[in-house]
Amino acid sequence: MTNSSRTFVLASRGSQLAQIQTNLAMDSMKSLFASSNTDAIPKFTTSFMSTAGDKNQSQALYLLGGKALWTKELEVALIEREVDMLVHSFKDVPTVLPEGCIIAGIMEREDPVDSLVVKKDSPWKTLDDLPNGSIVGTSSVRRVAQLKRKYPELVFQDVRGNLNTRMAKLDAPDGPYAAIVLAKAGMVRLGMGDRLTSDLPPPLLYHAVSQGALAIEIRSNDEESLKICQQITHQETAWCCLAERACLRKLEGGCSVPVGIGSSLDGNVLTITGCVTALDGSKHVEHTITETVTNEEQAEAVGTKLATTLIEAGAKEILDDITIDREMRIKLAQEKDEKIST
């Protein structure tokens, strides 16, 4: 344990949820030194900033270029030594980090399941309850692609903004949404778990890679930060999330690719399921692997093996079609913007 009296700056996005999560990480770090009798113990403070993903709330995430939207400005501040640690929702972190940055800490995961929230005072509780033609809000093509398979009669529509903004859009009396789909973990951390009306667990809906977990990113040469982060890392969460991320990295997926995942660790036995679904739900590839692992590297190897199996089973064709579709939509969006500007 470090005996440094250094002050560590923990940074994240400025949303209410990001601030809550950063404070959770900071409290865990402070607790490591709670019983120390010396004055030479580290101090911790926070810094919050807006990212490109926060600033652009109008375009669908599908068109905006992936997860770096949420992390790039933060990583610049980290590399330039303005801050010391970044606290992320792990699902928002690209699978390849900038040179000189590493994930040093992975905190215990909340339930990673996606959940349904219906408009306030509505009689419905589940997707099955919703009338045909009801509008369900979500910014995730992963959710839309999977849910269209069972609910082709529902209309899925983009809804952007932080959790508080999305909830306000849902509850607006003149708003179009009958319900929205959200990550359960964020709602629970915000103290809004009572609004969740039903969970959407696998096999109906496989969650995003690393969903529900918090990750701490540091400079790779910062030994003091590394030691602290290692002490708040939850091994089961780390092995599962690293396996999931290895699968996504091999598939070259990101925020806009419908890769769903589920994993569990029972002792040293890792079970991981992955799926890739066409945007319209018409094609779906799914596979499960169970193997014994004894370290992070072996867990990652299982994730990579799963991705290879999915590719061989047809996932590459689905992902190629999605890439073509996105490029076409981006071109149309750019042409629309050009017409508006002229």
Automatic annotation (TrEMBL):
CDD domains: PBP2_HuPBGD_like (cd13645). Residues 239-311 form the Porphobilinogen deaminase C-terminal domain. It is an enzyme of class 2 (transferase). Pathway: Porphyrin-containing compound metabolism. Coiled coil: none annotated. Residues 9-225 form the Porphobilinogen deaminase N-terminal domain. Its EC number is 2.5.1.61. Keywords: Heme biosynthesis, Porphyrin biosynthesis, Transferase. Pfam families: Porphobil_deam, Porphobil_deamC. It comes from the Eukaryota. Belongs to the HMBS family. NCBIfam families: hemC (TIGR00212). This is hydroxymethylbilane synthase. It comes from Lentinula lateritia.
